[in-house]
Amino acid sequence: MNQPIRPAGLLARFSSFTTFARRVGALAAPYFRSEDKWKARGLLLAIVLLNLGTVYMAVQFNDWYRVFYDALEKRDQAVFWQQMGRFSYLAFGAIIIAVYKFYLTQLLQVRWRSWMTRDYLRRWLSNHAFYKMELARFSAQTDVNASPDNPDQRIQEDVHSFTTSTISLSMGLLNSVVTLTSFVGILWALSGSFGFTVGGNTYTIPGFMVWAAIAYCLVGSVLTHYIGRALIRLNFTQQRLEANFRHHMVRVREYSESIALDRGETVERSQLDGRFGAVLGNYIQLIRANKKLIWFQSFFGQAAVIFPFIVAAPRFFSGAIQLGQLIQISSAFGKVQDSLSWFVDSYDSLASWRATTDRLTSFEDSMAAIDQQARTRTRATVDGVAGSAVAPLGADSLSTEGLSIKLPSGQTLLGDLTLTARAGDSVLVKGPSGSGKSTLFRALAGIWPFSEGKRHLPPDTMFIPQRPYFPDGSLRDALAYPQSAMQYTDEALKQVLTDALLPKLASRLDDSDAWSQKLSGGEQQRLAIARVLLKKPRWIFADEATAALDEAAEKTLYEKLQAHLHAVHGGMVSIAHRPSVAAFHNRQWELVPQPEGSPARYNLHERSLSA
């Protein structure tokens, strides 16, 4: 029993289509309104005109077929050579149009991709979006499957695919519409009328070849959608699985030393095999879905070759039309059929483009949400932004008011914190592992999105994380990061390396290497402290910055940091577990576990460490 077409279902599909069209417009429009808009619009206009020129040449070739084959049938040598000359300049014009259409299309794709990539990189690296997106994937309020994954792939691969496919498909659609408009009149005039008798009544269908082409392609489009609709989901999944597989290989390379020391090769191979197995499993499904679609498209395309001859044959054999007209009918029918079959022929590309667009849309939505939060949120922010605290102790002091810090799961880690630290203070933060000491630093820095309240962070501040980051490249660039090494003299760079107990590196400023892998943990921490000594901030937040050092080296470096802060009348907040570090601080913030059922998992107790 056939299922009836429900109006509600049709409305839902139409609404889904219009929503998708708006999303495509939201992704595409910014470039054509950007500072590069006139070049972009000019290139687009030129490509459109060249596509129209392609259709015009196709119309000319269609007329050439009629005259040329009629000359052959009549054995008219003069017309034959005349048409050979006409073909020469038609072919030359078509070649010029084809070359410049290709060149300008590629140029627009490159310029569009360049602009989108730079725009996405700028936004991804603004407002700590790259950090917050990773945190959001593990938030209780976020659907991990719907949250943006693998931003590297989206910026590098999906932007390229989107710009290329959007131009290709839109120009293909334009070409099909214009071709249909140009050839449907030709086919209508050539096809004549088709009459038949039913029950003693005679019926005539004018332009029957046009209606035959429409019916043929309409049936083909509907069947193509139902056969190939699984490709959209499979393409989306394939892109995600490929990115996950590549991402895990990058992590193996990044943590190669740790994996080697742990003898973790077997585990990593097993995990990579599992991820690659998922890639292959989905790809096999994709191949099977494509096979079904290609079966139908091949039958559809081959049948289209002989279909116009079968329909027009009675008129040819009756003498109503000549050979040239039969060939012209076949050519015109092919053009109309190709135009109407654009959806059938492009379905695989459309499915891949839809998956790419959905991925970019979710990425765009996440960045837009973070941009909006950065403008309007009332969480802990710096001075001058809604929700910030007035510094009661002066601009050079640290203060918070009602600061609440939560975990991504939504559970409150620390609640209602009111903290103060003046210039000249050295505060030690202590607490059990996992109590939120590093998360407190992230909230103070303003990068932890699961925090609420008010804070004031003094200017000229530097944070030393547990795992300092050093870019691959020259040592001088790693030392000056994120500033330019050109701001510092060689003498200054060598001096801070010596002060940080790295004198052997002082002669390697221009050596390029992967410093995060080549330096030991202790050397990386000393290099991070050398960076602080180079930039001379007034406030230092050190998160177990000397945990990998021996006590003698730790004592020496803390003495140098304290001497620097005393000279600039600054302050320090440190996270450390060793009792020896307490000697360099005059105050302590201790995170104390609270009983189960309390509003927060930990509370903060403050006391003096002065003698």
How would you describe what is shown here?
With 611 residues, the protein is an alpha/beta fold. It has two domains: 16-375, ABC transporter transmembrane region fold; 398-608, P-loop containing nucleotide triphosphate hydrolases (Rossmann fold, 3-Layer(aba) Sandwich). The chain has 18 helices and 14 strands. The longest helix is centred in the middle third of the chain and has 53 residues, at 265-317. The termini are far apart.
Structure summary:
By secondary structure, the chain is an alpha/beta fold. It has 18 helices and 14 strands.
Layout of secondary structure:
Layout: H1 7-32, H2 37-74, H3 77-124, H4 129-136, H5 151-191, E1 193-198, E2 201-206, H6 208-228, H7 230-254, H8 256-261, H9 265-317, H10 323-340, H11 342-345, H12 347-376, E3 398-406, E4 412-417, E5 420-421, E6 426-430, H13 437-445, E7 451-456, E8 461-464, E9 473-474, H14 475-480, H15 490-499, E10 512-513, H16 515-518, H17 521-535, E11 539-543, H18 551-568, E12 571-575, E13 587-593, E14 602-608
Parallel strand pairs: 6-12, 6-13, 8-11, 11-12
Antiparallel strand pairs: 1-2, 3-4, 3-5, 3-7, 9-10, 13-14
Helix pairs in contact: 1-12, 2-3, 2-5, 2-10, 3-5, 5-10, 5-12, 6-9, 6-10, 7-9, 7-12, 9-10, 15-17, 17-18
Number of domains: 2
Give Rg in angstroms: 35 Å
State the shape.
elongated
Question: Helices and strands: which structural class?
Answer: alpha/beta
Instruction: Tell how many strands the DSSP assignment holds.
Output: 14
Task: Tell me the name of the CATH class of the largest domain.
Answer: Mainly Alpha
How many angstroms does the end-to-end distance come to? Answer: 91 Å
